[in-house]
Amino acid sequence: MLRIGNKPIDYESYVASYLDEVFSKIRIVDNSLDKEEIRDLVADYFVQKFYREENLQYDYDFIDLFCGAGGLSVGLEHEGFRPIAAVDNNKAAITTYKFNRPWLGNENVHEEDIRELLNPDIFPHVPLIVGGPPCQGFSIVNKHKKDHDERNELYRFYVHSVDIARPQVFLMENVEGILKLYDIIKNDFEHIGYITCNPIVLNTKDFGFPQSRKRAFIIGFQEENADIAAELYDSFNETINGCKLGRQYSLWDAIGDLPPLDAKTAKNSTCYESAAWGYTCAGLMRSDTEYVRFINDRLPLLIPLLNHRSKYNNERDIQIYRLLNQGEKSDAESIQDINPYKSRSDIFRDKFHKLVADDPCKAMTAHMYYDCNMYIHPYQARGLTPREAARIQGFPDDYFFFGSPNEWYRQIGNAVSPLMARVLGRGLKVILDRINGYEGNH
Predict the structure, then answer these.
(1) The domain that contains 98 carries what CATH number?
(2) Are 373 and 366 within 8 A, CB to CB?
(3) Which segments of 24-182 are extended strands (E)?
(4) Pairing of strands 7-9, 2-4
(5) Under a CB-based contact definition with an 8 Å cutoff, are residues 325 and 297 in contact?
(6) Residue 2 falls within a domain, yes or no?
(7) What is the CATH number of the domain that holds 363?
(8) Are residues 129 and 239 in the same domain?
(9) Residue 154 lies in a domain
């Protein structure tokens, strides 16, 4: 039994409480799987996984604000950090976050508006706070911005959370556009006793990962470390740059071993699953490609195939998917007779986009919640599945996403790449080791 404080957790009951609800909604329409057999197989895998992980050792605790499904936490955990509290107001994302971390407990993972949670019991002192608050409301190019935009308020509560927990270091993540607001951010943190370093923009592709995804990161330290701030920042950057791989992974490196599927053709059939359309949970899969070994580091070779289901498409879109060549978009000649966006090609050139197998993928986004027309599989007439999107982001194969299939897409598209989070984790550990006077391992 894993203990959180003085509370024992029975893994079998814990896993069953999640999986029973999931499997109660699944309908295998072609009888290709025995639902009860697969449920037991998946349950056994996770029970054994959680037993293996109960004695893992961590170097530093952290709090994850606006945690989503946990992409940032996944990477930091890999590098020796332990989340002790997490907050997000999305039910499906919080369910995903909780299930994959049974040792945290409900009292430490909060499906709440952050504005309702600010007290020292929720946010105790920790070495590190991370997160990506919504900042669109601050945009200086937004002609319709409001002084009391709710998104501005959420950003300010991120600052207030740092003020309460007083971490030695904070890391804030967002889209590159946040850099237009850096002077505001810098002043807000100076007001609570933190100095910020020049923001850095990192692209997953530059590190060899199979996706072109730019994100901005802002790091801050307590003012008491001002005398070594330049040293800390230089060490962080040096560590980050040392994490670049000696090769470039492609889209096909990431997803090429996953079972082929057809686009789903049954409309309004969220619970329907089949061999052709894929499953929420399939049998154990053995995959031993170089990229899979990289993202599944420390995991067994046999892992359940999770969240590998295609999205519904009508016959017209499936035909468009077939006609497009890799790299082609909505303006391709081959689809003009059936392209519903032809008259607005100046606006919707990217409405359809067939991915290139041998290149890094375009950035995963939450738009996949609505459709995957911009993420067409390079060889199969369908959009990417959530598991394929998760592979591209760098989630390990046994990271199980909860909620509806559309919500899986949203969680994955909104997440920080766990692979980039590993890189950041290494840099953050160097900073914290220096602040705390550690030499080498500890």
Answers:
(1) 3.40.50.150
(2) no
(3) 27-28, 60-65, 81-88, 109-111, 128-131, 169-174
(4) antiparallel
(5) no
(6) no
(7) 3.90.120.10
(8) yes
(9) yes
Q: Which portions of the chain are predicted below pLDDT 70?
A: 1-7, 118-120, 135-153, 342-349, 439-442
Is residue 313 domain-resident? yes
Give the residue carrying structure tokens 């072109």.
212
* pTM greater than the 0.70 cutoff: yes
pLDDT for position 123: 83
* Domain assignment of residue 170, given as a range: 14-245+421-435
Which residue is listed with tokens 């002609």?
143
Residues recorded for the chain: 442
* Backbone torsions φ then ψ of 312, nearest 5 degrees: -65, 140
Residues 264, 154 within the same domain: no
- 384 lies in some domain: yes
Please tell me whether residues 108 and 182 are part of one structural domain: yes
The string of pLDDT tens digits covering residues 308-352 is: 999 999 999 999 999 999 999 999 999 999 988 766 555 556 789
Q: Catalytic site residues?
A: 135
Residue 8 class from Cβ within 10 Å (0-12 exposed, 13-18 middle, 19+ buried)? exposed
Tell me the Ramachandran region of residue 5: left when phi exceeds 0, alpha when psi lies from -120 to 50, beta otherwise.
left
What is the token pair recorded at 214?
């730019």
